Amino acid sequence: MNTTTICFPLRVLLMIPLVALFHVSFTQSLTDTDPWQFSSQRPEIAPVNGIDDEIMIHDAPTLKLAGNGEKSANGCWFVNVPVKSMSWYRFKTLYKGENIAEQSRSVLARIIWQDAEGKLVNRPEYPATLADIDENGCSIIEQIYQVPEEAVSARIELIYRWDEDGQVNFGGTTMTLVEDPGPRKVRLATIHHRPENSSGAMQNLEEFASFIERAARQGADIVCLPEGATQVGTQSNYMSASEPLPGPSSKFLGEIAKKHKLYIVAGILEKDGSTVYNTAILLDREGNLAGKYRKVSLPREEIEGGVTPGDSFPVFDTDFGKVGIMICWDVSFPEAARTLAFNGAEVIMMPIWGGHLTLAKARALENQVYLVSSTYDMKSAVFDQEGEIIGEASDENPVVVVEVDLNERKYWPWLGDFKNRIRREMPPQSALQTK
Question: Is the pLDDT reported for residue 74 higher than 80?
């Protein structure tokens, strides 16, 4: 694949008096001698800015912005670059932040598409901050975009705001011409089934196995089973239904996953020494135990039954994207889904006994993720980024498979790409403190 990279040079800035950096420029083409420039909404809130040759990124000086004791600080470095209409570009910048309370709110990039007259085309873009840190300890802001039809240039802004104590150094900023990434389709499946009068875990799993096979025949990539899949319909309680992981149930389901070359998420009561967790496992296409999530939000019934809560919200890499897991009562609290989304989850799988349908819709909508529920007493469904049900399983139709494109971006009227604005514009943690 042939690529063209536009790099943003700093060497000219090293020869410019610092006062020139406060000059606000509008439309300009990028050449080898064009500098970045500094801008702020008002001089009174302009962050301290300059070229830093002590903090380096890729062995080059960096663009510095600092609060300097001003909690209202808000400003950016910017440059205008030419782009090709309807072409695809990967924007990327690296940064190192110090003493910043909430980097997701205070450190960001913005891309403003402009027509030949320098007017705004479409809504500004807010590239995603990745959950990963690179090998040099830099945070990464990166996303691929298709240039709007009318756009001939992009104003790139590297922003620091709202933290009086911190400092950010930007570097390694590129706008790289790439090929159309194309769709990234995945077939999400849910099963609606409640075993009854079962002799135990294996009978339950054999019943679920027939439905998994039906999902496989429809091309499912990942299948969600309900919470407590090995307990429901049996005489077992939380303790007697629990088993180690890996264990008999994960092995049985792993063989099915391997046979059909798909991922399976299933609710299992996990026994770890003397501790019992309400757990959901993730099995990969080879039948391996690829991950597990221990339910963090426990209702009092489980607490009184001797179950211990988990303490983290992991996100798992699959061959089609990043998957998070919630279990039942987790859906009642926005923090669970929000943490998974902030950690990169594109799809949330949710084994659930029963719950309020509106909460499931809200978790998908407010985080702009796909959500898959498998349940006994609620709707087993696939929810889209608007919180709408796009596929529902039922007693009459217990297996539903829905194809979605994880590369398709959701644009909202007036808001644009709402997903990437959430972290930038949500209430700060300091405002959410309770007494």
Answer: yes
- 76, 138, 224, 328: the active-site residue: 328
pLDDT of residue 141: 97
* Residue 194 pLDDT: 98
Amino acid identity of residue 254, one-letter, is: G
> Active site includes 157?
no
Closest CA to 293 of 238, 336, 240: 336
Helix 201-217 with 248-260: angle, nearest 10 deg: 20
Q: Residue 305 class from Cβ within 10 Å (0-12 exposed, 13-18 middle, 19+ buried)?
A: middle
What CA–CA distance (Å, rounded) separates 266 from 325?
10
Residue 3: pLDDT band with limits 50, 70, 90: very low
Range 1-20 average pLDDT: 39
Respond yes or no: is residue 185 known to be catalytic.
Answer: no
Give the Cα separation of 177 and 44 in Å (integer).
Answer: 38
Q: Give me the catalytic one of 292, 295, 361, 419.
A: 295
Tell me the DSSP string of 296-319.
Answer: -S--HHHHHTT--------EEE-S
Best-predicted range by mean pLDDT (32-46, 128-142, 241-255): 241-255
C-alpha to C-alpha distance for 328 and 352, rounded to whole angstroms: 4
- 246 preceded by a cis bond (ω within 30 of 0): yes
**Alpha-carbon Rg for the chain in angstroms:** 25
Options 157, 227, 270, 346, the catalytic residue:
227
- Give exposure, 346-358, as e/b (b: 16+ Cβ within 10 Å): bbbbbbbbebebe
Which among 63, 65, 10, 53 is positioned nearest to 34, based on CA atoms? Answer: 10
pLDDT at 185 over 60: yes
What CA–CA distance (Å, rounded) separates 89 from 148? Answer: 11
37-40 sheet: strands from edge to edge: 37-40, 74-82, 153-161, 107-114
pLDDT tens-place string over residues 419-428: 988 988 989 8
What pLDDT, on the 0 to 100 scale, is given for residue 5?
Answer: 45
Res 31 pLDDT > 70: no
Average pLDDT over residues 38-58: 95
* Torsion on CA atoms 187, 404, 343, 287, rounded to nearest 10: 10
- Taking the C-alpha atoms of residue 62 and residue 71, their distance in angstroms, rounded to an integer, is 23
Residue 76 annotated in active site: no
